[in-house]
Amino acid sequence: MSGTYLGMPSFPKAAKDAVHNVTLRANLRHATHTIRDKRAKAVAELEDWALLREAGKQIKDHTLRHLDRYLEQLESAVTAAGGTVHWAADAEEANRIVADLVKATGESEVVKVKSMATQEIGLNEALKAEGISAYETDLAELIVQLGDDRPSHILVPAIHRNRAEIRDIFERKMGSWGRPAPDGLSDSPAELAEAARLHLRERFLRAKVGISGANFMVAETGTLVVFESEGNGRMCLTLPETLISVVGIEKVVPTWRDLEVFLQTLPRSSTAERMNPYTSMWTGTADADGPRTFHLVLLDNGRTGTLADEVGRQALRCIRCSACLNVCPVYERAGGHAYGSVYPGPIGAILSPQLRGIQSEIDASLPYASSLCGACYEVCPVAIDIPEVLLHLREKVVEQGGKGHRLEKAAIKAAGWILDHPAALAAVEKTASGTRGLYPGRPPGAGAWTADRELPELPAQSFRDWWKKNRT
Fold it and tell me: Which residues form the LUD domain (predicted)?
């Protein structure tokens, strides 16, 4: 699977190619508009949505302020319940831990629950290098894996594919990965889902090792929680003899009661459901049911560095709902691949540069992958002020002398010169005043983005002219 994003061009270059892909834009527009419209209706059902949003924000902020204490509490609780906790400072260490754990079982294949953390560290590729096959079991992740593709959306990784493309992928690739697609497969959702179900069933029944992430970890009890809609997660979490969970350290919450908030906000913000079909929770191991061995790999990989930034740390509140992607006009047109990260869209534009640093061309460009319209902040269920963080990161890019900002620096330099020369400033003001009738009512070239915005009206005369006439 081609899962690495290393060497990808900057966002403007990648987006330029994406916007000319007519099929991609049609797929994205249809999918994002459908999801966001359903989400709006689901959220409107709750009169206390604003209070739930604020509660989620406060729970996350409190946890991040005391992250060391809650992680230690989590480790103690998981250990007491029969699990083993491993700490991974970066992707390389996390991959080595998981590979060693799998090899210790004597197995050469694993089944996986959809996990952003394992995509972030390139686990599938690392396991392949060790002779271990990792099989994705989420339907969209399966499509991406069979198509030798990259995910382009947090919730719906294959959102850039339409039904006809998916059918072609199944017909061409399923047979080389396991059970082939049925003869005469159509592109109806029911037939595609049934083909995937039959293909995956033999994986579930044969696998001895499962790998997952987690949406939340409860420090109080050592419980891990996975939200999903298909049931594949439940199969991976209960059937294998060994379960390995790779989870970012920011996913911890203090108490069991804190889940009450996120059980309401996450499903509505992601799949537009009142509750997700499958909520799997497990605490350590049990003799009578489930895996006999459980390992939890706690992943840092840039998170403590992000935590040290007072403005940027709010990105760690993210609960991976993807609501910000579905309302973003930039994502809708450019698609997820242009972001060069497993975290696309507005949240990716602020999370990836912090986790990976802004030294590379792609990461230095991501804070500029936004119109700053603020729609992402309005829908975020934990109130991450993404526009604020974008501006904060832009400042950092400029301070580090990032490439591609010569025009911005030139404009600032020109403005500084004009403000330092009163005669030049007066000439500019006089020209602007004399040509006011030529200005459009709305900024040109922005289309639907400025449908509800108008340029402010210029006054009849400048303050300088008014002062000359009225100062006496």
Answer: 71-298
Closest C-alpha among 208, 293, 295 to residue 245: 295
| Cβ count near 352 (within 10 Å) | 26
Q: What is the pLDDT of residue 468?
A: 82
How many residues would you count in the chain?
472
Structure tokens at 230: 């298909």
- Whether the CB-CB separation of 211 and 244 falls below 8 Å is answered with yes
Q: CA gyration radius for the chain? A: 25
| Contact status, residue 13 vs residue 226, Cβ threshold 8 Å | no
Average pLDDT over residues 351-369: 94
Mean pLDDT of 98-119: 97
Q: Give dist(CA 26, CA 74) in Å, integer.
A: 45
Q: If residue 78 lies in a helix (H) or strand (E), which one and from where to where? A: helix 67-80
pLDDT at 451: 66
Is the per-residue pLDDT at 284 higher than 80? yes
Residue with tokens 């990792």: 134
SS3 call for 379? helix
Which tens digit of pLDDT belongs to each residue from 428-445? 877 877 776 676 666 666
Instruction: Using a pLDDT cut of 90, give the percent of the chain over it.
Output: 75
Instruction: State the pLDDT at residue 19.
Output: 87
Q: What's the Cα-to-Cα distance from 390 to each of 324, 361, 365, rounded to whole Å?
A: 14, 16, 11
Residue bearing the bigger pLDDT, 381 or 360: 381
* Strand partners for 242: 209, 293
Q: Chain centroid to CA 287: how far?
A: 36
**Phi–psi pair at 297, nearest 5 degrees:** -105, 110
Which of 109, 87, 125 minimizes the C-alpha distance to 2? 125
Cα(382)–Cα(57) distance, integer angstroms = 5
The kind and range of the H/E element at 223 are strand 223-228
> May I ask the CATH architecture of the domain 11-303?
3-Layer(aba) Sandwich (3.40)
Count CB-CB contacts under 10 A for residue 40: 14
pLDDT value of residue 238: 95
Average pLDDT over residues 353-367: 93
pLDDT in tens, 139-189: 999 999 999 999 999 988 998 999 999 999 999 999 999 999 999 999 999
Q: Answer for the pair 245, 296: CB distance below 8 angstroms, yes or no.
A: yes
- Write out the two tokens for 106: 């004597």
Q: Which residue has the tokens 């049934």?
A: 194
d(C-alpha 418, C-alpha 423), whole Å: 8
> Domain map of the chain by residue range?
11-303, 406-470
| DSSP assignments along 389-437, one per residue | HHHHHHHHHHHTT-TT-HHHHHHHHHHHHHHH-HHHHHHHHHHHHHTGG
